[in-house]
Write a structure and sequence with these properties.
The protein is α/β, with parallel strands linked by helices and 368 residues long. It has three domains: 2-54, no CATH class; 61-148 and 336-366, nicotinate phosphoribosyltransferase, CATH 3.20.140; 149-330, Aldolase class I (TIM Barrel, Alpha-Beta Barrel), CATH 3.20.20.70. It has 14 helices and 17 strands. It has helices at residues 31-36, 50-54, 61-72, 95-101, 131-134, 138-162, 180-190, 198-203, 214-220, 223-233, 250-261, 281-293, 309-318, 327-330; strands spanning 2-6, 14-15, 18-23, 79-86, 90-91, 107-111, 117-118, 125-130, 166-169, 194-195, 241-243, 267-270, 300-304, 322-325, 337-344, 347-348, 365-366. It has a six-stranded antiparallel beta sheet with strand order 16-15-4-8-6-17. Mean pLDDT is 92; it is low at 1-24.
Amino acid sequence: MTRLVCYNHSMMGIVRGAIVKMNTPGKVASLSQVKEFAVDPARRLFSATHDEIINGYTTDLYFVKTRQILDSMGLTNAWVTAEVFPRKPGVLAGIDECMNLLQDTDVEVWAMPEGEPFDAKQTVMRIRGRYSEFGIYETAMLGILASSSAWATAAHDIRDAAGARSFICFGARHLHPAVAPVMERAAVIGGADGASCILGAKIAGAEPRGTVPHAVFLIVGDTVEVAKVYDREMPPEDARIILVDTFKDEAEESLRVAEALRERLQGIRLDTPGERGGVTVDLVREVRARLDQAGFNYVKIFVSGGVTPERIVELSAAGADSFGVGSYISGASPIDMTMDIKEVEGKPIAKRGRIPGIVSNPRLAKVK
């Protein structure tokens, strides 16, 4: 392994005054390469770089051992067909990223479209080619599909509950920053109307969305004062939605903000902490009624904090118009994915308990 010190700021972050890039020696194919691979003690972050993923250094070691065994037996170029299937139903996401990973490989790929529902054990992806071309990527591809599909499935649950009401993914703070953008993209695929994470939204082809945190209100000391400056400083296309639970009773603060901004106010945000009982159905109902009675029926109610599909149904009935959803999406358990070799040199084959040969799925389309 070599290290290249370079002053190109498109590479890894600054380390001791220079830019340090771990230059891996091509795709990992042997235990000797694993042994030689070392982590720079000055590494700033522990997440894998794109090069490390593409070159196979996030794979399970047993795939490297498999490659070395096949090399020694002259079977490196064995022609195989592999299929990926989930252990439980869900909504598919992660296919595009898997295809990016396979971009430089000489394989054929069939897959279901992202955003489509799948059943347990339904083939969601089929890969055909020399095992040496893609075997090393099994760990990465299964991880991409397992996590992305879980997040998309959770977002789909929220979409079902919200119906026509909008919701934004607020889950980036619950995950490692290296994968938070992946989660937010998956949430958009699953049905979210937007995402708060800048990179996640941009990757999903959208602009990031969000209001402001309690921090600005605590520093300034007054909700209405912040609302006025927000209205003055934010671009016209930014919705005027003001957080109202920092200092005073939410209903009282909503009316104060509405009086200050009048028709320019599009909504108020309720994010009452659990220590105060959280955002309840009765609170939403009261805020809605008081706004309406004061002539502010056009002001929408945006709810965040502990939002689940069940709570969305209840809060919507009470008058909530839109939602910020974090941990329900970000905390979704990965949907286990399995990759099985189903053909070797055109001959159907399978491990015990599985049926040899490819599993038909008319919903697969050729993508490579």
